[in-house]
Amino acid sequence: MKNETKLTQIQQEILVGSLLGDGALAKRKENINARYHVRMGLLHKIELIYLYNIFKNLCKTSFKESNVYNKKTNKIYNVISFMTLSYPCFNDYYNLFYNNGKKSIPLNIAELLTARGLAQWIMDDGGRDGNGLRLYTNSFTKKDLELLQQALKKNFDLNANIIHVNKKINSSQFKLYIKVESMIKLKLLVKPFMLPSMYYKIQLTSPNNINKNSYNNNNLR
Predict the structure, then answer these.
(1) Using one digit for the tens of pLDDT, what is the confidence trace for 124-152?
(2) What is the C-alpha separation between 58 and 10, in angstroms, rounded?
(3) Which domain holds residue 143?
(4) pTM above 0.70, yes or no
(5) Nearest 5°: phi and psi at 180?
(6) Which of these, 53, 92, 98, 184, is most buried using a 10 Å CB contact count?
(7) CA–CA separation, 22 vs 183, rounded Å?
(8) Count of helix runs (H) and strand runs (E) in the chain
(9) pLDDT over 70 (residue 221)
């Protein structure tokens, strides 16, 4: 029964990390249960299938590949996606992460974010930045990022800076940068929960099969 369906601990932790990244929750109507949806560029097929396998007990159909037109870039991209059915177990997370339909960071993010969730967030939106790590958080406000910055410090003792995406313009977009001195601690923390193909993001291996000019997930937002 849908009303009796509960998320496992692993599903809860990964859902939080995914919502910080490429994952989304949606409701068709306000009085209808929420559903979980993930869409990524085809380059990230391995990661999406990994997520699908974690949530497939809540899905009616499998993942699928399709073409999506992006108005901003005037290009068509190959994407892969899946969607769960609507369940009451997603409603609490929808209420926490969405304000008038727009994704935001809940005030209790420190209570929700675990090492597994952090690993998922990095797999979604992390990237090497010199000897540190950047987290693309363009869709969140500076106040949201301050909550994330505090959670990283409180939960994992990781030091992060909030940086303008483009200092040359009056930009309201920011990213988080995890400092070099925190990288050893970060690697030990998240490696057990990351796909080996994603280790390059935390500088454990080189991205020997990644096309740097390939489609970036940010274009889907």
Answers:
(1) 999 988 889 999 998 899 999 999 999 99
(2) 14
(3) 109-197
(4) yes
(5) -55, -40
(6) 98
(7) 23
(8) 7, 10
(9) no
